[in-house]
Amino acid sequence: MLLPRPILLAGMALLALLVAPLAPARADEAGYNAAVYLLRQTTQPYRDGRHNTMLRALRQLGDDDLQPLFAALAGSSHAPQRVHGLLGQAEISPKRRIDLAALAELEDDRETVEVLAAAMDDDLIDKIGLAAVLGWEGLSPAVRQAVALRLLSEGGSVDTAPFAVSLEIKLDEDLEAGKMLQYAIGALILAEAGDPAGAEALSKVAGLRGSTADAVLAQLLDGAMRRELKTVGPTALRIAQDEQRGPSLRLLAVQAALRLKVRGADVVWQGMYQNQTEAARKVRLALIALDAAAAVDPALFDSLVSSDQELIRLIAQAGRAIAKRQADTAEALAPLIAFGQPLINAWAVTFCRREEPAYAPDLLEAVIRAHNAGEERNRGRLTEAAIAAVHAMCELNPEQATQRLPALLRASTKPGDGTDSLELLRQRQLLLLGIVRAHSADLSSLADQIGTDEHKDFTTEALRLLARARYGATLAKDEWARISDLVQGVGQMELGLRVQLAWLHLERTGKARQAIGEALK
Question: Quick one: pLDDT band at residue 457, thresholds 50, 70, 90?
Answer without folding.
Answer: confident
